[in-house]
Design a protein that fits this description.
By secondary structure, the chain is mainly beta. It is built from 4 helices and 9 strands; from the N terminus they run H-H-E-E-H-E-E-E-E-H-E-E-E.
Length: 261
């Protein structure tokens, strides 16, 4: 078997043993979520009141994936880039030791909203309900990923790796075990940042007569960096109008009764 040849040449056992990995690989995740909410209402009288408030949220998550030197993950990385020197000695270009991958993500956002309400009835038959308000929201996402080879879980020390030669393909193993890191650097190291902003304005008005006939109208404008920088995609309001007839409130419907079996 080729695995026996690898071992005879000083490499690690290249086979995969699930029970060994169950003891030699650990995943640890630590997550913290926070949320603060505040809402206030103030009544001006005369049918007017104002509501304002907001939400602030944060979330952080840290993941530590550790595969010891005895795990199949670490053994296969080390074997893949093991090479013979000109003097016949064996060099592990992925240094002996464990493999540690650390990933951290964080999200923070806030939403603030203010709304003016009007609700009033006149002469017992007319009623007007209206709102006008605005909302602003901001969302930030961050993530970072780093990997370490030749890592000692007791001393917390790592050993250097020539990643530049691995990426270019200049550094390869002697034993034809592939190049698992060459096209997978984003799986070892990565950093991302994104920020999305939203701004909205809206209004709605409802007029009703005798709680039977009503007219409605609404308008809303949303702006966001998700729409890009082209002005033609901004400042376009969405609006609607409508009418309703609550026929069951008509006098001629009061004596109508339903029948059933």
């Amino acid at each position: 078997m080729y695995n026996d040849i690898l071992i005879a040449n000083g490499l690690y056992d290249h086979n995969y043993y699930p029970l060994v990995d169950a003891n030699e690989i650990t995943d640890k995740t630590h997550t913290v979520n926070n949320r603060i909410t505040a809402n206030f209402t103030y009544d001006f009288g005369g049918g007017f009141d104002v509501q304002f408030g907001g939400i602030y949220e944060t979330s952080t998550s840290d993941l530590d994936y550790y595969a010891s030197e005895a795990s199949s993950v670490a053994r296969r990385y080390m074997n893949a880039y093991a090479a013979r020197n000109t003097d016949g000695s064996l060099k592990f270009n992925i240094p002996k030791g464990g493999y540690l991958r650390q990933m951290g993500t964080s999200t923070s956002s806030y939403t603030a909203r203010a709304q003016l309400n009007y609700n009033r009835r006149f002469a017992g038959v007319h009623s007007i309900n209206g709102i006008i308000g605005a909302e602003v929201r901001n969302l930030v996402n961050k993530s970072k990923l780093a990997s370490y080879f030749g890592y000692n879980d007791e001393t917390l020390l790592q050993q250097p790796v020539d990643y530049a030669s691995i990426v270019t393909g200049a550094l390869r193993g002697t034993f034809n075990l592939g190049a698992p890191l060459q096209n997978n650097m984003t799986g070892l190291f990565n950093q991302q940042y994104s920020q999305d902003r939203f701004l909205s304005g809206y209004a709605n008005l409802v007029y009703a007569y005798k709680s039977t006939y009503s007219l409605t109208g609404s308008i809303r404008i949303d702006q966001s960096n998700l729409f890009g920088t082209n002005p033609k995609y901004k400042y376009k309001p969405l609006w609607s109008t409508g009418a309703a007839w609550n026929i069951h409130n008509e006098e001629f419907m009061q004596d109508v009764t339903g029948s059933g079996s």
